[in-house]
Amino acid sequence: MALAIASLRAFGFACLGLAVAGATVWGALAIYFSDLWVEPLRIGLAAAFGLGTSFAFVCLRRRRRTLLGFGVAFAILLAWWTSIEPSNQRDWQTEVAVLPYATRDGDLVTLHDIRNFAYRTEQDFVPRYYDRTFDLRALDAVDLIAVYWAGDAIAHIMVSFGFAGEQVAFSIETRKEKGEAYSSLAGFFRQYELIYVVGDERDLIRVRTNYRQPEELVYLYRTRASPDTARLLFLQYVEKINQLNEAPEFYNTLTTNCTTDVWMLVRALAGRLPLDWRVLLSGYFPSYAYDLGSLDARLPFADLKTASLVNERAHAADHDPAFSARIREGLPQPVPRERSSEAPAPPPGA
Q1: pLDDT at residue 61, rounded to an integer
Q2: pTM for the full model?
Q3: Which end of the chain is less congested by CB atoms within 10 angstroms, N or C?
Q4: Secondary structure E strands in the chain
Q5: Is cis: bond before 214, omega within 30 of 0?
Q6: How far from 48 is each of 6, 23, 52, 76, 216, CA to CA, in Å?
Q7: What is the mean pLDDT of residues 251-265?
Q8: Domain spans of the chain, in order of start
Q9: What pLDDT score does 344 carry?
């Protein structure tokens, strides 16, 4: 009995120690990636928090008081960190400088500031934007775009909507400031704002296939989304871009990123959120959508994936105004669902 109690106490202390260590590492990183603009100050405060915590627990004898003091210090740090606010007013990189927005008149939705840059290289381009009005009654296609650059597990997911052959795509990205580079680690700590880029496929796809070096692999899958599902999903994106205009949000590497696309797609295409590890590892999401019956099941998935690679088509189409139509030539086209009986109720006003 005494041995069991001792073992439980040791286990409890071990868990407490891990919790304190984890909180200390998180706290130091939160300080380092905070909005304190002087880097030496951020480095000094982060080091002081980490080293001070270590010194206190190693050298001070009264552990309960030490633990209480750490709890108070961590609570203050957490309160300060959560007070950091996102903003739409920063010196943004050109690619994400303009926030899109939408206006609606019944079935007519006008998307403002659709991005369509004219690229010479990935870094050398002429910024161009246009407005376009889409008729929801003509919405007849939802395409899943998966972009790979470093193996099979992680992909950037985009969604493209077709209106009687005219496409518009949405890409969830980090809104970086000039001189700021992307870091997955920094993305956990309120380092970047969130942007839903609304773009012409001649921009969002072509920059990845034709201009990035090395080029990224882009797969375009036609989905079996019903007209009801397509309308619901499109209006969710419209609502979100307007929300971000009014109330900016932070990007988060884990919870608020292009994986949001995955969650929205699962909910729209399947009407529910079935548990599956492929929802988190976005590179495998196309195979998950295939198993849900949302893609063309007439081919084995491996063959469907091979047939859905559009890089060669994108190189051939390049500056062609019919870029979207040409990259879809020969792609497997599944039979669409007539109606999504499992789809959730549309948002108010939809």
Answers
A1: 79
A2: 0.88
A3: N
A4: 101-105, 108-115, 118-119, 125-126, 129-135, 139-148, 156-163, 166-175, 193-199, 217-222
A5: yes
A6: 34, 14, 5, 15, 42
A7: 79
A8: 2-82, 94-327
A9: 40
